[in-house]
Amino acid sequence: MKRFVFLVSFLSMIFSLAPCSSANNEMDYTAFLALLTKHGYSYQELEEPLVLGTVFSASAEKPIVVGNDFLFVWEFDTNELVENNAELVRKDGYAVENKNFSWTHGPPHFFKKDRIIVMYQGVNEQMIDFLAEFLGDPFAGARAAAG
Questions:
Q1: Distance (Å, rounded) from C-alpha 108 to C-alpha 138?
Q2: Residue 95 burial (C-beta neighbours within 10 Å; 0-12, 13-18, 19+)
Q3: DSSP structure class, residue 32
Q4: CB 58 within 8 A of CB 82
Q5: Distance, CA of 103 to CA of 72 (rounded, Å)
Q6: Which of 46, 86, 146, 147 sits at 20 to 30 Å (Cα–Cα) from 92?
Q7: Contact between 145 and 128 (Cβ < 8 Å)
Q8: Are the C-beta atoms of residues 88 and 56 closer than 8 Å to each other?
Q9: Predicted confidence band at 103 (pLDDT cuts at 50, 70, 90)?
């Protein structure tokens, strides 16, 4: 009986650490933060939008500082909204819905997965590789425009 209780407790703990937190195991904002933590990244959530604010429909920007890097996350109710909003980003990442941006901390890299769009602005190859590994190749920005 003790082994059964231990096994159930152990499995509950393992599943609670899974990187996708929504009911359908989709990547959302909470799951993304858990993923950062799981892979040893410390982060600070900022209160105010810094870049695009609510340029994407139905989602406010959630800025995160990871070391010296800035990540910007937008969470949507559905993957369809993610796809629709991703289409608004110019391939080189320097315009969203006909609004041009001059990025000051390096080139933009836009990623998407399930219910989130993540934009990383910078040149840290380790961060870009991490995001690509877990969110897929960038759909817009420096690497996407080059590829």
A1: 10
A2: middle
A3: H
A4: no
A5: 13
A6: 46
A7: no
A8: yes
A9: confident
The token pair that represents 142 in the structure block: 């420096």
Query: What 3-state class would DSSP assign to 70?
Result: strand
pLDDT tens track for 60-102: 788 899 998 989 999 999 999 999 999 999 999 998 888 888 8
Tens of pLDDT along 21-41?
445 688 999 999 999 999 999
Among residues 92, 93, 88, 63, which one has the least CA distance to residue 75?
Answer: 63
How far is C-alpha 12 from the chain's CA centre? Answer: 26
Q: Encoding tokens for residue 72?
A: 């910007």
Q: Checking DSSP bridges between strand 140-141 and strand 108-113, what pairing results, if any?
A: antiparallel
- Alpha helices (H) along the chain: 2-16, 29-38, 79-86, 125-135, 142-146
The phi and psi torsions of 23 (rounded to 5 degrees) equal -60, -30
- 56 within 8 A of 77, measured Cβ to Cβ: no
Q: What b/e string do you get for 10-20 counting C-beta neighbours within 10 Å, with b at 16 or more?
A: eeeeeeeeebb
